[in-house]
Design brief:
alpha+beta, two-stranded parallel sheet, 34% helix, single chain, three-stranded antiparallel sheet
């Protein structure tokens, strides 16, 4: 499941007229507008529009998330590695730059 804001939906071209996808679901409000919740294969409508992150972007993102979560008292997260950060997170762990525990899984549809 992915949660997208209105700008993300707009950039991905997901709107009231976007048809459902096989084995996926776009949650909609009473008027049929997407709420931003995309399930299963509907996630690809958004994920396929996100350009790949550079190694530097991945490292900065993981370190920032690590620091934010720890500051909130969160010490572990689950991640279905749809953005391909596992290798970078593993390297940061080896460098002792990652204190957050990440329970990672490979996406079934990738």
């Amino acid at each position: 499941m992915i949660f997208a804001n209105s700008k993300g939906l707009e950039l991905a071209g997901i709107d009231k007229n976007t048809p459902e996808v096989p084995n996926g679901r776009i949650l909609r409000d009473l008027e049929g507008n997407p709420t931003g919740i995309l399930k299963s294969n509907a996630m690809n409508l958004l994920l396929d529009k996100i350009p790949p992150m550079t190694a530097n972007q991945k490292e900065k993102t993981i370190v920032a998330a690590n620091n934010y979560f720890l500051a909130q008292g969160i010490t572990s997260v689950h991640d279905v590695d749809s953005l391909g950060i596992l290798a970078t997170a593993s390297a940061l762990l080896q460098q002792n730059k990652l204190k957050l525990k990440i329970y990672a899984a490979k996406p079934l549809n990738r």
